[in-house]
Amino acid sequence: MQKDVFHLAWSPDSLPAEEAVRPLLERLYASLSTYSATLLKNNLDRLLHLLWLAVLSALHEQIGKDSEEKQEAFFVRLYDALELLRAFFHAHGRGLDGNTLMGLEYSALERQLRLHKTSTEALIETYHLERLLVQERTELQEYGSLFVRVYFNHDSLCVEVLQARNLIPLDPNGFSDPFVVIEMLPR
């Protein structure tokens, strides 16, 4: 199985995922055909689960090898192959159930492949969208919310304070003299 996963991972970029994963699927199919005739359903399911985890582990090992040499096509092929393998192990509802297939090991590998196959521009956009979501969820801060715009103007970093909301009065008289302190961290 290791040899077939290696073939899948390091086959030429021009080879589609369906072709690159075929030797692995054929080996798995041949093994499982023999076992499905002799094992009870529960034992076959346990064997399927162990094989699934072994495939995920082998794919994860290939991602970790010589990472600086890999191009986007490498990760796209592995991502597509992972989906083909998931469909194979699901077997149109006769194999592993969705919860078993999409466990922690699968989720971690799928996320890693998805991030590696994504363009730099899309990753930056995703990062900014995630930061905006975090900001929206934590809008009710202890002292209020501050909205700023940050940009580079020639060689200078410019920070504009656009708006402050829900500021709480901190003076003993119940009023507030708001001000903003801007720091660059780490110092």
UniProtKB/TrEMBL annotation:
<keyword id="KW-0268">Exocytosis</keyword>
<dbReference type="InterPro" id="IPR000008">
    <property type="entry name" value="C2_dom"/>
</dbReference>
<dbReference type="GO" id="GO:0099503">
    <property type="term" value="C:secretory vesicle"/>
</dbReference>
<dbReference type="InterPro" id="IPR014772">
    <property type="entry name" value="Munc13_dom-2"/>
</dbReference>
<protein>
    <recommendedName>
        <fullName>MHD2 domain-containing protein</fullName>
    </recommendedName>
</protein>
<dbReference type="GO" id="GO:0006887">
    <property type="term" value="P:exocytosis"/>
</dbReference>
<dbReference type="Pfam" id="PF00168">
    <property type="entry name" value="C2"/>
</dbReference>
<dbReference type="InterPro" id="IPR052095">
    <property type="entry name" value="UNC-13_domain"/>
</dbReference>
<comment type="similarity">
    <text>Belongs to the unc-13 family.</text>
</comment>
<feature type="domain" description="MHD2">
    <location>
        <begin position="18"/>
        <end position="127"/>
    </location>
</feature>
<dbReference type="InterPro" id="IPR035892">
    <property type="entry name" value="C2_domain_sf"/>
</dbReference>
